[in-house]
Amino acid sequence: MRFFRILFDFYLNASVHVSLSVVALTMVTAYFFQLPDNVSLLGFAFFGTIVCYNFVKYGVEAEKYLIVYNSYHKTIQLFSFLCFLPAVYFFLQLGNRTRLAILVLGLLSVLYAVPFLPKNKNLRSLGGFKIYIVAAVWAGFTVILPLLEQEVSLSWDVFLLLAQRFILVLALILPFEIRDLRWDDTRLRTIPQVLGIEKTKRFGMVLVAFFFFLTFLKDELTAIEIGTRFVVSIILLVVFVLGKNMRQKYLASFWVEGVPMFWFGILWCLEQFL
Predict the structure, then answer these.
(1) Residues 54 and 14: beta-carbon distance below 8 Å
(2) What pLDDT digit, counting tens, does each position of 229-270 carry?
């Protein structure tokens, strides 16, 4: 039993779970725009997210972003290096415009962690800025990349989906912000630091409402899209309303971060049985 607990914690700490969530949101975009399966893009999304997330999480603590002294973090670092190889392979299989967009989003992710501003500051250290960078990268990655790869032209529905995805990711991040409140540097000025826990929860509920009701502004809309977004919205509202202790170990890192997978799972089941 202890072995499975260690394996599960590694699954979370090594960013495998969050990578699957990125893949799931990418597939949700493909589903709604009726895009064909793209193994190269999904492969890069999975392995690239592991590399990027682990660099951001653990590279900041490492000497020159490479030398790690904690043995557990060394294992995660080795795992990330192994994931880097298939990430490069899948990256090279993508179209030129997609690769350029990945480089832009990748640069934003690197600047999030690596100091490049005066007084050794990075984008993460800019007060109140952190959450919006993460949401922008997720939205760009899971909406723009699959559409670019299939050369889908920009439209009102594309911009609306991009806005919805940005709002959804903001809502998904808030439980993490509440969980990390006790550890975050006060200079980060995270939303819970500024608003407090209860107001942050209410802000999260407002975001979820915006996420759902923006659906009705789309030019092309299906009952499945409305229904699945409604289910996702209800789940997140329950988290904010009933989640009395956001600091529980697995509430944010497993259950909340797994919402995109649950969303795609519903879509997949509907496609199989309807």
Answers:
(1) yes
(2) 999 999 999 999 877 676 677 888 899 999 999 999 999 998
- The number of folded domains in the chain is 1
- Angle, helix 39-54 to helix 71-92, in steps of 10 degrees: 150
CA distance 189 to 124: 10
Q: What is the pLDDT of residues 145-158, one digit of tens each?
A: 999 999 888 899 99
| Identity of the residue numbered 97 | R
Cβ-proximal residues to 37 (8 Å cutoff; 6+ apart), any chain: 30
Lookup: tokens for 67: 């030398």
Helices (H), 93-155: 96-113, 130-139, 145-149
- Burial class of residue 141, CB neighbours in 10 A (0-12, 13-18, 19+): buried
CA–CA distance, 237 with 232 (Å, rounded to integer): 9
- The CB density around residue 87, as the number of other CB atoms within 10 Å, is 21
Range of the domain at 225: 2-273
User: pTM to 2 decimals?
Assistant: 0.91
